[in-house]
């Protein structure tokens, strides 16, 4: 369905019941209360943000994942039911930088809660870096230094919405940020004396590569994994890999590995996984990043 039409329907479905509440209800808040009144009701848009929110909020918040487990967030859009769920939440945690292309439409449906853009402070920090402005690459969470800022933004938003638990949120965030700092140091140390060029599947690791002085080449040129690999791009990747003596071609958990295998065969190399951590499989953000590190070490060191 055309997105505009879809959202027109959603707007009608949501705004009409809301106006009825305004007219007939004395306390419209009662309509939005779920099970536990004392807890912040939080919806996070996709997997890593869900985990970050859980780490910060723990037992003081109810965190729900918006994009269902197993579904890739890039091309996802909310159903009417999802929008109704979002209407009941106090906060919606998003990545920002255009990753949630449905968010503008949600704002039009009279959402009464807070939309938390976790990219705040990351883009500002990089303003002037042409690459970020031109590509609009949304994959900030794959750089653990940026992930720390995302976690802090979540803690600040929880603190603003629920000031009596401010200390709790800030302490949880500080502890988790410490783990992310450790992860960052580990990646920095373990990749420092290695080769720099790697072939990722889609254009997801540019912030990661910038942070750790690596050069990302990609099979899919787009920063959406559903982009097409053309014969020309395959040819380019193969010749780059041969020229740079690359022996590992990366794939992802949720894509067909065939394209990566074709390239790997051509260069007499092998396929390993470099996860963009967009879809929950198992483990945690930190364990997935550590697996990525181990596979990168196998490719580069
Ligand atoms: Zn992606």
Notes on the protein architecture:
With 301 residues, this protein is an alpha/beta fold. The chain has 2 domains: 3-186, Nitrogenase molybdenum iron protein domain (Rossmann fold, 3-Layer(aba) Sandwich), CATH 3.40.50.1980; 193-300, 3-Layer(aba) Sandwich (Rossmann fold), CATH 3.40.50.1980. The protein has helices at 3-24, 29-32, 47-57, 80-87, 103-108, 122-126, 130-135, 144-161, 166-191, 206-211, 231-243, 258-266, 285-300; strands at 40-44, 61-65, 91-94, 114-117, 197-202, 215-220, 248-251, 270-273. Helix 3 (47-57) packs across helix 8 (144-161). Residues 16-34 and 128-134 have low confidence and may be disordered. Zinc ion binds next to loops. Zinc ion (ZN) binds next to loops.
Structurally, the number of domains stands at 2
Oligomer: single chain
CATH class of the largest domain: Alpha Beta
What's the arrangement of strands in the largest beta sheet? 2-1-3-4
Low-confidence stretches: 16-34, 128-134
CATH architecture of the largest domain: 3-Layer(aba) Sandwich
Q: Tally the beta strands.
A: 8
What is the helical fraction, as a range of percent?
40-55%
Report the major sheet.
4 strands, parallel
Number of helices: 13
GO molecular function: metal ion binding
GO biological process, one term: cell adhesion
Keywords: Membrane, Signal, Transmembrane, Transmembrane helix, Transport
Transmembrane segments: 7-25
